[in-house]
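Sample entry (310 residues):
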Amino acid sequence: MTKGRPIFAIMGSGGIGGYFGARLARSGFDTTFVARGTHLQAICQSGLRVENGDESFSIEVKATDNPRDVGHVDFVLFAVKLWDAAEAGAACRPLVGPDTAVVSLLNGVESEGMLASILGAEHVMGGVAEISATIAAPGVIKKVSPFALIRFGELDRRRSPRAQALAAALSQAGVGVDLSEDINLAIWNKFVFLTGLSAITAITRHPIGKVRADTDTRGLLEEIMREALRVGQAAGVPIKDVVIAERLQFIDGLVPEIRASMAVDLLAGRRLELPWLSGAVVRKGAELGVATPANAFVCKALNLDVMGAG
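Predicted structure, serialized as tokens:
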């Protein structure tokens, strides 16, 4: 850790990385955004804007498309799309010093292992981002959900000094924090929920309000989540059956207009994270002998859209 306030890099400056990074930068933390294309150009020319109702703000920030321009940092918030994860993980090497933590905020249950294989397990923290936010326009992040929380922790479950330093920094930036006692369990808890939300809002093309109000689509949502939970249990994760009821209760409290990011990508003709969500349930289910017909249906229904409209 550097002396004084920790230094941050944001690898992937979309809805998740852009929002949390902007909060850190606004609170005075040395934060550099790694971005690309028109989003990077807009950030460099006009700064980064966060649209969040009454809390909307704009801020000038440091941004680049080359991590070598940044050097070693204390924390990397890793928030790219899953199909870019391996390449972006390798691109993080210039950011990683002796005690740097790369905090994975990706969807799915496989990114921590992938990053550990590239950067070394000692440089990887598990994480879960609970937020709905998107790039509304180049240089503009729109936060949709009323909540913004990061759950994170060391993969070996230690309450390390760097984990506590990260918790303090995020709290100072006004971000909800949960320094998890078992981050792998937290990751699977989100995976069950997100796999269901992503699948059902994508295949129906409707927001969650309509989906949860219909008996048939609600039942399919529940079965998609239940299959993911059974796969986790078969893999040895201590995830409990009650999670399904808890997640459904949480879904009932969501803003009716919310769609999962995969559904937003589908409607925009962009590539989908399907292979790492329902696809991972099917793949791991086959390995573990767990039947996953609902998730297999989702994969088949969206197969022609996985690579986007292009």
